[in-house]
Amino acid sequence: MNRVLFNAQDFVTSDRVRLCDYRADHIRRILRAAPGDCLKVGLINDRCGSGEVLEINQSSVTLRVTLDQAPPPKRPVTLLLALPRPKMARRIVHAATELGVKKIILLNSYRVEKSFWQSPLVDDTHLFSAMVEGLAQCGDTILPTLQRARLFKPFVEDELPTLLSQRTGLVAHPYASSAFTKPSGETVLAIGPEGGFIPYEVEKLLEAGMQGFTLGPRILKVETAVPAILGQFC
Amino acid sequence: MNRVLFNAQDFVTSDRVRLCDYRADHIRRILRAAPGDCLKVGLINDRCGSGEVLEINQSSVTLRVTLDQAPPPKRPVTLLLALPRPKMARRIVHAATELGVKKIILLNSYRVEKSFWQSPLVDDTHLFSAMVEGLAQCGDTILPTLQRARLFKPFVEDELPTLLSQRTGLVAHPYASSAFTKPSGETVLAIGPEGGFIPYEVEKLLEAGMQGFTLGPRILKVETAVPAILGQFC
């Protein structure tokens, strides 16, 4: 936790925040903060700043906060991600948040098992908690927006072309002939499930205006491919 | 498992391999292979090729193998990695192997807890199994070499300069002023522990001939930073 994050409801006065949960525990036990210490803080979906520790006790930590800094800039990327196996979804969403994607769209695909969509591990509560952890790790405050596209064809035919009207669309698949080159502006980056998008899906994504690219002869796990590609959008 | 890997001792004749363990299980249950099918195979630390399924039964799978292909080229990178928390080490070594690093040197650092070195999760057995899984995922056969540098100062003073005599050395730390730019040749890439190398360590690495670089204002977890940086060595 490189930045302590809070919500509007954590304020007890206009500039004081009281934390009573895992964040208070982290400040006490990991940061070993004492009254007078200054911590990096941030208001979720708002500004960053610093928080002076006013009081620490067994049940809470009170900070006087000054929110005077902009969060770090986002990478200009919308991640269009075939819904991963639920136990991997948290890790991938965490990494994508750390790396600063603006938006994550979870997409259905032939190789996404139907049961994945029902898993509590991919509900809003779990994925938002992964995002908040990712923000606290990297020092950001702005949550990526999260969308679910549970029907592949209607999304790709009706919504994706609009999304691509002002963005470059790239789809990673091992048999494309072009290597990855970083586009200059906003990008929609599509990453398939383990085993990849099926040929019909790749065709539909290309028809919608995306371009295929390959990462080379190595077939990467989704959780490796996501940071390996996002890292190139510095 | 995108390539079924085996060792010299799995051969029953000069071109036949018999598998009886998790690989046979994978071929039966996940690949659902039948006699006559052709699988991607490879001999560890040797060539890649194809394997025709000759026989499948409950206890084993027999393949006739032809090893006629070179493995994919490695990335020109030696990863000098502060020993990660043991439960993360496997995942990071797996990802680095998938991404094709040539060598991994596990390095001590002030912020590496002493107990990490004693964990069975970072012994050769565990890390080689992570590497073999990584190879099977990405379709490679050549294991990265693995070295342990349990004493920071002697390694950095006595061994690192030799390593750097024919390689560019880069150390990731958040407060460096230069952004990452991919060197043209062989590279030693140093990545610190969670919390980073301490200033004394950064200084010693720079004295040994490494150059600092920053990944920007975001502080990444080690398991995110490793693929995010390695991805740029395409």
Summarize the structure.
The structure is a homodimer of 234-residue chains. Chain A is an alpha/beta fold and 234 residues long.
Main sheet characteristics of chain A: 6 strands, mixed
Task: Report the average pLDDT across residues of chain A.
Answer: 96
Strand order of the largest sheet of chain A: 1-4-5-6-3-2
Q: Please tell me the CATH architecture of the largest domain in chain A by its name.
A: 3-Layer(aba) Sandwich
Portion in strands of chain A: 25-35%
Order of helices and strands of chain A: EEEHEEEEHEHHEHEEHEH
| Level-1 CATH class name of the largest domain in chain A | Alpha Beta
Family (chains A, B): Belongs to the RNA methyltransferase RsmE family.
Catalytic activity (chains A, B): uridine(1498) in 16S rRNA + S-adenosyl-L-methionine = N(3)-methyluridine(1498) in 16S rRNA + S-adenosyl-L-homocysteine + H(+)
GO biological process, one term (chains A, B): rRNA base methylation
Protein name (chains A, B): Ribosomal RNA small subunit methyltransferase E
Molecular structure report:
2 copies of one chain form a homodimer. With 234 residues, chain A is α/β, with parallel strands linked by helices. Chain A has 2 domains: 4-69, Beta Barrel (Ribosomal Protein L25, Chain P), CATH 2.40.240; 77-230, 3-Layer(aba) Sandwich (Alpha/beta knot). The first copy, chain A, has helices at 22-29, 86-98, 114-118, 124-138, 152-164, 199-207, 222-230, and strands spanning 4-6, 11-13, 16-19, 38-43, 48-56, 61-69, 77-82, 103-107, 145-149, 168-172, 187-191, 211-213. In chain A, the strands form 2 sheets. In chain A, strands 1-4-5-6-3-2 form a 6-stranded mixed β-sheet. Chain A has a 6-stranded parallel β-sheet with strand order 9-8-7-11-10-12, with helices on both faces. In chain A, a hairpin with a 4-residue loop joins strand 5 (48-56) and strand 6. The radius of gyration of chain A is 20 Å and the shape is elongated. Chain A starts with a strand and ends with a helix. The model of chain A has no long low-confidence stretch (mean pLDDT 96). Chain A binds chain B through residues 2, 72-73, 95, 98-100, 137-140, 179-180, 215-221, 223-224, 227-232, 234, and chain B through 2, 72, 94-95, 98-100, 137-140, 179-180, 215-221, 223-224, 227-232, 234.
